[in-house]
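Progress report, Aim 2. The chain analyzed during this reporting quarter is listed below.
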Amino acid sequence: MHKRTFDLLSSSCLLVVLSPILFVVAGLVRLRLGSPIFFRQRRPGLKGKPFELMKFRTMTDARDAMGNLLPDNQRMTRFGRFLRSSSLDELPTLLNVIRGDMSLVGPRPLLMEYLPKYTAEENRRHEVRPGITGWAQVNGRNAIRWEEKFRLDVWYVDHQSLWLDLYILMLTAWKVVRRSDISADGHATMPKFERRPSSNSVYDPADALPNIN
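Predicted structure tokens for the chain:
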């Protein structure tokens, strides 16, 4: 309850204070990248239940001759890189926190397609609400291997507290200022998580059935 109250009050205050920046960024995204302004995608939340993540768009919709989207690093513009390196693209995610889909601090919500690939231990990252930032983000972010990222996420689940959240938020601010660990070598962000489904998987595809309102 204390964590939820902290999330709600903090994200509401941040939205009010940062509203001028939100409007400016939204206008620039519309001008430079066109519509839609927001990137929306289904991501797994608490207990793996899907929700719709909101961020500012950072990529074009460039496609190949077959109509398939080009790789991320080919669709990422200089302006998009600036939004990501400054974390300005994450500002709309504060709305996800207010709605209760996310927390300010927690394991980052990844792709729905990764759910069948987790081991039972890795899947424990979904025992808490996903976060805008997290323990993995301040300990390497996209510059560390997937397995290390998951280990750090589970560590947070086992040690979460309001004081740890405050410490992570402080470290996040420093990381944003330094613009460090934004991407893995040769990738716009991270390479896709590739692991064959194993007998340790605990994900039930029926969990993804509810529609997003």
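The radius of gyration is 17 Å. The chain has one domain: 2-193. These observations will guide the mutagenesis work planned for the next reporting period.
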